[in-house]
Amino acid sequence: MTLTHTASLDQGKPKFSELLAQPEVRQRWEKVRKYFFLRESTYDMSNRCNLRCDGCYYYEGEKQFAVENSSVEAWRQLMRDEKKRGITYVVLAGAEPSLVPERLEVCFQEIPLGSIATNGLKKIPESVGYKIHISVWGNDETSFRVRKAKDLLIKQIDNYRNDPRAVFVYTFTRNNIDEVREVAGGLVAEDCRLTFNVFSSPVGYAGPLRHDEESLKRVQAAMMALLEHYPQNVLFSAYNAMAHTHKSSLHDLYTCLYPRQNRSQDLGLGRSFRQYRADLNWDRSAACCVPDTDCADCRHYASGSAVVTARLFRHAQESATFKSWLDYVDTYLAVWVMGYPKGENLCAEPVSPPGT
Which whole number is the average pLDDT over 240-245? Predict the structure, then answer.
């Protein structure tokens, strides 16, 4: 989620001022550039969860064994230290953050910009003014099979209907593509907003949720259809669909900037990003927005919010890719930042990522 405003264009390519010649493009650029100050880190708030889902990232690797720090004052001090370090945006995840509301309150008091990733089974107090991302993995029948939770979508909607913080995140697996119309229709009927994620396998996962090229094509088609059908409720763009369903992973397309893959400590995420475990420690060699993801299969929406948005230079080589990049940034800000309104997309059709 780190943006850069540095743009130096090659000889023969359009000048940046030429890319901004159209009023709607300049207006969008001016809108998104105000948020270039965002600097994120992520935090596992708890090692407990009230669900146990097939393919869960948290219960892979070593982080699940961290001893949970339950001191509210220790969390407050961590946030104060993070603010001094230049962090302006926090992503609170876990296991399940809703189980520790007092820690969420403290984080919000110290750093008021951020988001929480939750399964939505338990409502987070309205006094915590972060964006809340509610994970949806299919209809209730599928949720019961994969997440062992009965009537989960009904409970999620009951908890977050008419809540301006809430964004429902539908994660496409290989097996739930055809269910998305039913789920999206139900969410839209309740005037909920939704965006899309693509299941990205944890390291070593070879189960039935993992995508192949055929399923990725079907996911892109479903995304585009819903984007066209529900433009007021679906927070997405054609370029989001292209970037996250490409046969190549985000790491292969854009080169990941998170410390786990990025050895540089000089600039951007390589210098500022940390992924704290529930014991308030962090490990640079494992620091990633979704740790223990198989990087060769990474198409996660959270990863893209930093990996794609940071690549302004690559996208500022011609008009269509630059407009697509603006759509992507506009989408990610609407999904991740309270009070940021999604604008009308500038590009209606997917364009290929630069260099492909």
Answer: 98
